[in-house]
């Protein structure tokens, strides 16, 4: 629960829409893979009732993000093949969203849905994005562009996000946070799987994972379509639970160097896939400073990599490898 809350609050600090989309997709995929059964098989997932509850929540998180980070838009990229559009060309903010149409039969497009208030036109909302001040905007109020109204709406959502998801319910604090970042090409897998991350003195998987990176297989890749997935797994709470003296590198790095490991399991069972059989796998450890307050969007500092934690482990990032995040220079930490 605490892991998922941290992953969720981190979404709203992202100012690049494509990066937000990638991390939201990772949260989305993890539910499909962890629930398993038909939810882990794209052809059958929509027949499971939890599919619809799950996607309502994804829509809710999207609306909350649009309110907190307005005017962020997608960067066009190669289109994944669909029955309606094929696989040629780019997806843009004007790509038709088949099969969803207006009453006049024109297709909806992403640029019509860039504001969270677009859901009002569709006749619904969520408590986190619907304070009384903005209800009138759904009814065609001519003053719907009033900046005071917009600010009140955004502040309402920020407070809700911090209350629901921030550490200690958004209590004002600044702390050093740790995470594992996993980059892998889904083309290396034949079926949905999960990469499970552990911190265990005995390198024992029975201790339970501290996080899971989902590999949710949708369809075969096509030319020009990037099939890599990038998942960030927070480690801060897991490290605190292990009673370290502090979250500073001199305490954390030796612990992770000795105890951090990962395995790959098939979705829905415990069959293990050898980690070294996935050539694209890259696993890295980073720290960054984070600041929280009840009425402000969380802020995150630059990420610092620690290659000595992962170097020598299957798929572990090592000094000299291309970065998988925009980072500041590495800090060397002695084991002593």
UniProtKB/TrEMBL annotation:
One Pfam family cited in the UniProt record for this chain: Tyrosinase
Homology family: Belongs to the tyrosinase family.
PANTHER family: SHKT DOMAIN-CONTAINING PROTEIN, TYROSINASE FAMILY MEMBER
Positions of the UniProt region annotated as Disordered: 296-336
Alphabetic keyword roster: Copper, Melanin biosynthesis, Metal-binding, Monooxygenase, Oxidoreductase
Organism annotation: Trichoglossum hirsutum
Domain Tyrosinase copper-binding positions: 48-59
Enzyme Commission identifier(s): 1.14.18.1
Catalytic activity: 2 L-dopa + O2 = 2 L-dopaquinone + 2 H2O; L-tyrosine + O2 = L-dopaquinone + H2O
Name of the featured protein: tyrosinase
Source taxon at top rank: Eukaryota
GO biological process: melanin biosynthetic process
Organism lineage: Eukaryota, Fungi, Dikarya, Ascomycota, Pezizomycotina
An MF annotation (GO) of this entry: metal ion binding
Cofactor(s) the record lists: Cu(2+)
């Amino acid at each position: 629960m605490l892991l998922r809350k941290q992953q969720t609050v981190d979404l709203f600090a992202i100012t690049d829409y494509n990066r937000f989309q990638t991390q939201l997709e990772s949260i989305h995929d993890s539910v499909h893979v962890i629930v398993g059964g038909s939810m882990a098989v794209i052809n059958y997932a929509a027949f499971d009732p939890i599919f619809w509850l799950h996607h309502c929540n994804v829509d809710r998180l999207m609306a909350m993000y649009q309110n907190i980070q307005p005017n962020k838009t997608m960067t066009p990229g190669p289109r994944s093949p669909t029955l309606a559009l094929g696989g040629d060309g780019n997806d843009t903010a004007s790509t038709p969203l088949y099969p969803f149409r207006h009453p006049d039969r024109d297709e909806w497009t992403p640029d019509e849905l860039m504001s969270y208030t677009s859901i009002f036109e569709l006749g619904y909302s969520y408590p986190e994005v619907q304070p009384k001040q903005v209800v009138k905007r759904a009814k065609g109020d001519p003053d719907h562009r009033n900046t005071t109204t917009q600010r009140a709406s955004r502040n309402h959502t920020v407070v809700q996000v911090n209350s629901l998801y921030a550490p200690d319910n958004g209590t004002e604090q600044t702390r050093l946070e740790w995470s594992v970042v996993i980059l892998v090409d889904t083309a290396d897998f034949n079926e949905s799987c999960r990469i499970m991350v552990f911190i265990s003195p005995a390198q024992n998987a029975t201790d339970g994972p501290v996080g899971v990176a989902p590999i949710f297989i949708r369809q075969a890749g096509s030319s020009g379509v990037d099939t890599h997935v990038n998942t960030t797994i927070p480690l801060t709470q897991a490290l605190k639970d292990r009673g370290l003296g502090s979250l500073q590198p001199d305490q954390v790095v030796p612990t992770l160097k000795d105890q951090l490991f990962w395995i790959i399991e098939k979705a829905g069972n415990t069959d293990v896939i050898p980690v070294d059989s996935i050539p694209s796998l890259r696993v890295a450890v980073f720290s960054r400073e984070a600041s929280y307050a009840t009425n402000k969007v969380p802020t995150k500092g630059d990420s610092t990599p620690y290659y000595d934690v992962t170097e020598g482990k299957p798929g572990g990032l090592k000094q000299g490898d291309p970065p998988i995040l925009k980072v500041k220079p590495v800090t060397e930490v002695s084991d002593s």
